[in-house]
Structures are given as structure tokens and as C-alpha cells.
Amino acid sequence: MDDSFFLSAALIVLALALSGPAGLLLALRQRHHIRVLERRLALVEARPVAGSGPITAPMTTPILAPEPARPEPAPAAVPPVPSPALPPVPPPRGAVPAVAPERPISAPAPSIEERFGTRWTVWVGGLALAFGAVLLVRYSAERGLFGPGVRIAGALALALSLVGLGEFLRRRLRGSEPVPPIRPDVPAMVTAAGTVGLFGAVYAAHALYGFIGPGLAFAGLAATGLAAMVAALLHGPALAGIGLVGALATPLLVGGGGTSLWPLALYLPVVAGSAYAFAWLKGWRALAVAGGLGAAAWALFLTILPGENVAVQVHLVLQQALAILVFAVLPGRGVPDAEARLDRFAALALAAAAGVALAVLGLTPHAGSGLAWAAAALAAIVLPALAGFVAAPAAAGGAVAALTLAGALVLWPEAAEPASAPFFFLWYGTDHPGLLLALAAAGSLAVAGLGTLRLLGGSRLPYATALAFAAGAAVAPLAALALAYLRITGGAVAPDFAAAAGGLAAGFCGLAVLCRRQGDATPSPALTLGFGAFAAASVASLCLGLVFALAGGSLTPALAGAALATGLIARRLDIPALRWCVAGLAVIVAARLAWDPALIRGGLSDRLILNGLVTAYGLPALCFGLAAWAIRRPDRRPGHSADIPEQVAQALSLLLSGLFVFLEIRHALHGGTLADPGTSVLEQGLTTLTSLGFSLVLVRFSGPSASPVIRFAGLAFACLALFQGALGLGLAANPLLTDEPVTGGLILNDAVLAYALPAAAAFALARAARGVRPVWFVRMAGGLGLALSFLALCLAVRHGFQGERLGLDRETGQAEWYAYSAVWLGLGLVALGYGILRGSATARLASAVLVGLATLKVFLFDLSGLEGPLRALSFLGLGGCLIGIGLVYQRLVFAPPPRPAAPDA
């Protein structure tokens, strides 16, 4: 066989491929008529058809429209005539009711045959057409039947023929009717196959044979993609998706015009804008989302290509503006303020656009003056805020703009030689501080101004929408000021930033006054919310100014003061949303503590109590405690615990209070040096005493309506005291093990204070916790008190005999051994007396343990270790105590019941 046979076979296959759709056209010519007949049949089936029997006249008067009542004379009384009992006449089977109820006709589920004949064949047929064209071109190339020019011409002819056939099928099958939403459209599928063929032919002409250059190939592919999106107005969204993918992939296939990125920076927004326009015109959200994803992918991809960063930033601004216009502005444009509820999809789109913008800005550091970088960052900040201003449902744009401003200031490139190492992804120093300040000021003014204007002009806004505007307008300037301060000064004292904070506080006061006046004229919750937000922001600005001027960079006192002011404003104006702002500020401070618990660095004075710890820990603890009281819900019913904002503020207040007292103890005992290594028995004892004191106070405040935070904190402090007593006082700082000197007299010394005071606090806690805390908690506190009392007596005895050094390696005399037995028995008797007086079985059990321990010591150690009268006195004293204890148990604890009186004779 020669090649002519294969050529004839190929032509036959091509003829069959082209005749298949034609045959399908002939088979489906009557599709329109069949559809009309199906609709008529459905309408006929929806109407009840009269039965075969005769239709009897209804016994009652048919239902007519109501007529006005007419006065009729009263009929004469006629005795009722009994009528023969007749069976009820059923309504005729085929009778049509006066008002037929409208029932939606649900379409039956398509069968396998219908799916095969109407869907799968169309999809597979379109795919087969595309593969057939590709295989035919490949075969001709392998056999050398035609030259390159003939191949490209044939491919173009085949593609154009498929496009023309698709248009012909569209006009014959459905005309101007829309694309069927369920079944795949045959004309659209044929047109899509032709479009793919056009892409392949143009690309082959450039990449395989070099007939056309990159510029012409770029223009041809781009025109094909855009033309496909235009044709999609007639053939449906699938063709638009193919055109969009082809248009976006064109620069990857043939390049974007050399090393310059400007052609791509201008071409890609045109493609995305075309997709957005067609999607908005036809309501194809999926096409718009696909265009947005493609634009985001290209924006990130351009950052790794060599070329001008300015072109990348211009492309970013254009793409962000188009996306915000389509996804946020147009859907919410024209919505009345009273109906302007937050659009979640718009908020998600704004957040995604801002995230892409920050990523691009982070990947394109500015060089030279950085003016283009700052302009792109400013556009990324202003565009979301402007979207919220224009379309109220996109009010989340204000909050997104504030976060974008903070992110831009964090991403601002550092100095060539930074003054210090980065702290939490934040570099200190910049080569262009003036430009950074200009960006912070311009972005803050834009976000705050647009949000304030929207609040003042939209008094009928829903609460959530107004909250979004108020949050963006209040947070953006505060975040910009704080971050600019950290980037430029590195946390040092800065009077100029303190003055700026004062000016910002005055500006917030002015905005609060405007909202108050507008609210007096036209009362609304939105204006009240704006007034509260700006008043809280004013106080926060003053707190920031104090930190900048005095505290040297610690933001914790400023945030705590802002939380207190916000809580008071929320209580005074009854703004529930501000309660969550207090919780948010508390979470920020808690995160700061988790990152680095040391809120104060070097330079701490050695003054007791009144030192830097007061402002770093004590003042924030007080502020958050008062804030928790301020945001307590006035309508909380008895027996109900606090809600989440109040619990968060309470938890942080307790945490800061504990750290403040613990650090003050360490500051006092180490001469003002918190980082001094080592510890002492007095420090461990006072820390344990503090933990027990916190737990005791919280137990006193706990009740049926107490906050879960208070109950949990009481348990936590008690467990901390147990841990501190066992490891700190029992092992780490125990003078018996460390042999550290114990200062003080015979009665009052470090050992007695470190063990006796916590023991007394533990006993008080055990007594106060009865009926309030679980039984195991009461027993744990009592056991801790007993153990600390035992150690305190032992150390007191050893200090009396040994002096300052109490190590176990020192020799123990016979008198000291005898004193231990007497002290242990005495402590056991005291515990027994308390147990009998209070009816405490736990105390009596502890007494039994102590007495048993003393008994073992006497029989095991005193018998062999003591000599002379001390050994005899030890046994005599033990015997007398044991007999007395037995008599007490027989007469008081387990006394027999009284005998009944004898009857009189």
C-alpha cells in the first residue's frame, strides 16, 4: 500500500468527523417542536380532566366574589320539613374546583439513557473532535504528506470550520434562546473545539515552524482568547472559560514582549477586565472568580520575573481595583443604608485582594527613593476603604484597609544596616523615615476619614455594618502610630511621637464630638457606636503618648489603659460591641506575655514596691480588673456566670497580679536584679504564701454566680502553692539539703517565716474551702499545711541547736534527738485536739500519722541513739501521750452510748 491509501483514509475520517455534527443536526431538527409539545403536555397534565361519568350539579352555591350585604325582610317562621336521608353525594371525580391550587411541577431525574444521549455523547464528541484534529495534523507531519504551510492552513481551516459549524448549529437549534442550564450545548461544544484548534494552530505557527514572530503570535492568541469570551455571550460560560485560560496562558506560551514587564502589566488587566465585564453582564460568578484567581497568580508570578518593579506594582494596583470593583462595589452599589448588611463574599474578596497586595509588596522591595512602592502600598490601603465608602455592604473594607496599613508598615524594607536584630518579624530602622511617616499619615487619614464620613452620613446603617466602619476608622491611626514608632525609634523614648499621639487624641475627640452632635440631631445606634469607638480611641492615643514619653516602649500599660477606658465607655453608653474590644486588647497583652513574660528590661531601680514593676505589671492588672467590672452585663441574672469578654479580662488581671507580686518578692530579695541566679528559702516561702493567699481570696469571692475564671484561678494558685512547697521548700531551697545559712533569732528566722506562714495560710485555705471546693482540694490544702508545719518545727529545733547552718551532714546531739520526739508528739496532739473540736476526721488522721511517726522514731532511733535519762524520759513521755490519746478516743471520739436508766421498782 502506498501513502495515498492512508491519505484517503484520513480524508474519510475527517469527512466523518464533520458529518457527525451534521447528522446530529438532522436528528435534532425537531427538538424545538418537541420541547413545545412537552410544555403543552405538562400543562394539560396539570389540569384535572373530567371523568367519563356525568357531571352532577353541585348541591351548594358556587363560590363567587363577595357582594355587599343587602337588607332582607325576615322570613316567616316555617316548621322544618324532614327530608329523606340521602347518602352524601361525592364530588365528581373530574370536577374542576373553583380555585385550583398551583403546584410546582418537579422535573423527573434524568435516566441513564438520557444522560448518555444528551450529555456524555456531546462532551465526548467535542473532545473527540479536538483530538481528531490534533492527530490528523500529527499524522500529516510524520508522513510528510503536506508542507508546514499546508498543515497550518489546514489546521486553521478546520478550526474555523468548527467555529462556523457551531454558529450554524446555534442558529438552527435554538436561535436567540439562552444556553440550556442542564444539558451541554452542542453548538457551544463544537465552537469550543474550534477555539482550541485556533489556539493550537497559532501556537504551532510560532513555536514549531516559526512562520510568525512572538509579537504576532501574542496578538493572535490574545485575540483568539478575547474573541472566545465575546462568543461566549451566545454559547455560554464554558467557552468563556476556555477563552480566559487561553488569554491568560498566552504570555507563558510566546512571551510577553522581551525583558520588559510593561506589556504584561497592561495586557493582563485587559484580559481580567474583559472576563469581569462578561461575568457581570451575564451573571457568571464562576467566570469572575476564575479571572480573579488568574490575576492573583500572575501578580505573584511577575514578582519573580526580571524586570521593573514599578511595572509589577502598577499591574497590582490595576488588578486590585478591577477585583474590588466587581466583587465589592458593584454588588452593593445602590443598596439603602437600612438594608446594607455585611456582604461576606465581598469581605472575603477584599481580604484576599489585600493579602495578594501585601505578598507582592513584600516580594518587591523598593530601590532608590521607594516612591513607587509607597504609592502602590497607599493604593492597596485606600481601595478597600473606598469600596466600603461607596458600597455600604462592603463595610469590611475599612477593617481590611487598617490591616493592610499595618502590614505595609511591617513590610517596609529595613535600613541597609539595621540598628538591632529583628524582633517578631519587625526590623528597626529605615533609610526613608520621612516616606514611611508619609505613608502612615496618608493611609490613616484616608481610612479614618472615609469611615467617619460613612458613619456620619449613614445613621440608618445596621449595627454590624456601623461596627465595621467604626473599627477601621479607629484602629488604623492607632496601629499606624504604634508601628511607625517601633520602626523608627526601636522602642526608645520619643517626645515627638508622644506629641503626635496627643494630636491624634485631640482628633479622635473631635470626631467623637461630631458623632455626638449628629446623634443628638438624629439618634441612631450607628452614631452612638461611632461616638464610643472614637472616645475609646482617644483614650488609647493618650495612653500611647504616655508610653512614648515615659515608659520607653512598653505597650502593655497603654493597652491596659485603653481597655479600661473602652470598658467605661461601653458601660456608660451601653455599647456591647466595645466589650469585645476589651477582650481583644486583653488577648493582645496575653500574646505579648506568652512571647516574652519580661515586660520590663534593664534599668529597674532597687526601690521596694514603687519601681518599674508597678507600671509594667501592677497598673495593667488593676486596669484589666476594673475593665472586667466595667463590662459586667447589668442584665445578668442571679446564678449565671460571666460571659466571655468579662472572663478574658478577669483572667488577664489575675495573671498580671500574680506576676507582679512574685516579681516584687524577687526584686526585694535580690537587690533589684530580677535575673540574679539562684533562690533562697525565704523567697520560696513568700512565693508559696502568695499563691495560697491568692487562692484564699478567690475562694472567699467564689459563689454560685462566680465566674469560672475565679474558680479555676483559685484551683490553679493552690496547685502552684503545692508544687512550690513540694519542690521549692521541700527540695530546692530546704536548708537541711542546701546547708545555706538561716538568718534570724531563735523564734523569728528565715526558716520559720518561710514554712510557718505558708502553713498557717494553707490551714486557713482548707477551712475556707469547706463546702465550696471539692473534698480533694480541702484535703490537699490541709495536707500541705501539716507538711509545712512539720518542716517548720523540725527546722526551728535544728536552728536552736545548730545555729545558722542546718545541713544534715552536721552532727546531731542527744538533746536534739529528744526534742524532735517531743515536738512531733506535741504537733500530733494539737492536730488531735483540733480534729475533736471541729469534728474533722482528716485532722485526727493526720494526728495519728504524726503520733505513729514519733512512736517509730522512739523505738527505732531513741532506743539506740539516746543514753541515760533522756532515753527513759523519751519512752515515759511517749507512753503517757499514747495512754492519754487512747483515753481521749474512748471517752470523746468513740464513747459508748449511755446505759438506759433502770426502771423504778
UniProtKB/TrEMBL annotation:
Keywords, sorted A to Z: Membrane, Transmembrane, Transmembrane helix
Highest rank taxon of the organism: Bacteria
Pro residues biased stretches: 71-86
Region (Disordered): 55-86
Transmembrane regions: 6-28, 120-139, 145-165, 186-205, 211-231, 238-255, 261-279, 286-304, 310-330, 342-364, 370-391, 398-415, 435-456, 463-485, 497-515, 527-548, 554-570, 577-595, 607-631, 651-669, 681-701, 713-732, 752-769, 776-798, 818-837, 844-864, 870-889
Pfam family, one: DUF2339
Name used for this protein in its record: DUF2339 domain-containing protein
